[in-house]
Amino acid sequence: MVNYNGNLVAFEDAKITPNNRALKYGDSVFETLKLVNGKLIFWEAHYFRLMASMRMLRMKIPMSFTLEFLENEILKTAKGTNSNNNLRIRLTITRKDGGFYLPLTNEVDYLIESQEINFVNKSTYKVDLYKDFYVYSGHLSTIKTNNKIIHTIASIYARENELDNCILLNERKGVVEATNASLFLVKGLVIKTPPLTEGCLRGIAREKVKSIIESTKDFTLEETVISPFEIQKADEVFLTNSIIGVQPITNYRKKEFSTEIGKKIAANFNILEITSK
Known about the structure:
Layout: E1 2-4, E2 7-9, H1 21-25, E3 28-36, E4 39-40, H2 43-56, H3 67-79, E5 87-95, E6 108-116, E7 126-135, H4 149-160, E8 165-170, E9 175-178, E10 182-187, E11 190-193, H5 204-215, E12 220-223, H6 228-233, E13 236-241, E14 245-249, E15 251-252, E16 255-256, H7 260-275
Parallel strand pairs: 7-8, 7-15, 11-12
Antiparallel strand pairs: 1-2, 1-6, 3-4, 3-5, 5-6, 8-9, 10-11, 10-13, 13-14, 15-16
Helix pairs in contact: 5-7
């Protein structure tokens, strides 16, 4: 089942018109969430990021779009999935149909989808750089719009080269993120991650991992520009997003990484998920 503006519709019966602005112009933002045992993980953080993204794109936020209203709509959709397992939820907000580059209105529609996930972190995880195209380091890259063509073709590149993921660069050749996750690099007692000014997504899991690192006395967190050369010299590299949690990288080109620190952070992240509100 999918939820379109509050109406539950069978997945195969869901329709969009040729004037859909997400289809024509990528005029849309979305959130990907995890639902475990009927509980949305980090929902409040996702909600406030969504509201900030809508404001940035000059979408009109309906008065009904409260934290509680959207949570109830998501849970209503999840019940129609007929599954007791963990679910991946996608909440998409798009400007209403019509117009060309200039929309007819700033009012919005919403679409909620849910599907089962049985995700297990991989013991071997191989990555490489994707260098055909670059992520622009502007502020717009920090929000989750439907314009993800670079992430899409980089994912295809990874599959074609038997990789689990690719690391994206910006126009200054600085490390940004993986195709679907934020990136952290461990060197000695310092853990680095690219700052938002490099064009990386303002990730919810990224912020949670930062808080884990900052709460420990074992490591120093640095948000700083990272060159591809530093990946080769790192002790560990790991990825994080709201679905996978923390995924250590084991192989980058000819370099093989240890995963001890990444696994410890993953364990702490799992605790945060359980206790999240």
